[in-house]
Every structure is written in structure tokens, then in C-alpha cells.
User: Which sequence fits this backbone?
């Protein structure tokens, strides 16, 4: 009960105070890409070509913002160690309010993240990297299948995701 109450207290919508000191990426068409049956959406990406290669952004849900060191939640997470996935269900490391709530990078909802901004050269080698706390608003929950269809030029998917796959 104590763990669930702590989760309910920290799993509040992202506020102006939460966004303070974070880089704002909400205007970019950032997407999550997971399998069709994925249950958690904890990472998101954005990429764009530039003259010498690519700019890649990787955004990971900032769970540490919500789980304070040595808190009851932290203790429970350490006991569980990781989430466990079964064909028909998942046993999350953190309570549902966090794992499928505020720490899930749901489309069109502000979420706190830790961001990696990478410059890749034309060979895909990392030329530079920068890391920072950020805030995103994922544009879409995509699947590996649909991304592959876009890359293969499928007209239906290319039209559906035209704004994202420019």
C-alpha cells in the first residue's frame, strides 16, 4: 500500500516546474518504435539528414525524476530488478502509475526524458554526442512493421506517416 501510494503521489502530469531546466524538444516529430505487442514505451527517436551524415536524438523516459534514491519505490524496484514479460501479460518493475503512466512516452503527452543528441558521419560513426534532461511530446507510436513498410515505400504507410518520414 505504501509503494502504491508513493507511486500515485509522484505520477502527476508534467508541470512547468518539472520542465524547468530541461531542453524542450516538444516541437519535433519524435516517435516511439516498438513491436506490435509492446506494453511499455520508454524510448523515442528523431533523426534528420545533414550535409555530413545524420543527427540522431534518442530520448529515454526519465524514471529517476519520479523514483528518488532510497525511497520506498526505489527499494521495491531494486527487489524486482527488472520487468518480466510473458506472452499474455507483463509484471512491471514499477507500479502501473509509473510503468504504463507518467514514464510511458505516450503520443501527444508531455514526458520527461534523458536525451542523447548524436551527430553521425556518413559512415554512421559518432562524431559528437551531447546528453541532457529534456521534455518531449511523442508524435506517434510506431511499430517496426510500419516503419519497415515506410522504408520500403509502401504507399499507404508513406502517406499515413508523410509528416514524420520526410
Assistant:
Amino acid at each position: 500500500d505504501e509503494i502504491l501510494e508513493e507511486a500515485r503521489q509522484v505520477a502527476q502530469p508534467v508541470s512547468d516546474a518539472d520542465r524547468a531546466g530541461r531542453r524542450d524538444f516538444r516541437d519535433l516529430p519524435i516517435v516511439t518504435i516498438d513491436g506490435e505487442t509492446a506494453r511499455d514505451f520508454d524510448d523515442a527517436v528523431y533523426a534528420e539528414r545533414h550535409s555530413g551524415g545524420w543527427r540522431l536524438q534518442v530520448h529515454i523516459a526519465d524514471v529517476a525524476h519520479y523514483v528518488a534514491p532510497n525511497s520506498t519505490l526505489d527499494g521495491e524496484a531494486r527487489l524486482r530488478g527488472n520487468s518480466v514479460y510473458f506472452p499474455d501479460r507483463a509484471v512491471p518493475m514499477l507500479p502501473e502509475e509509473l510503468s504504463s503512466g507518467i514514464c510511458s512516452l505516450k503520443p501527444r503527452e508531455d514526458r520527461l526524458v534523458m536525451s542523447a543528441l548524436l551527430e553521425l558521419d556518413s559512415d554512421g560513426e559518432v562524431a559528437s554526442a551531447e546528453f541532457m534532461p529534456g521534455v518531449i511530446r511523442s508524435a506517434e507510436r510506431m511499430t517496426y512493421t510500419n516503419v519497415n513498410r515506410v522504408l520500403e515505400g509502401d504507399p499507404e504507410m508513406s502517406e499515413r506517416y508523410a509528416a514524420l518520414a520526410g
Observations:
- The helical segments are 2-10, 16-19, 72-80, 96-102, 144-151, 155-160.
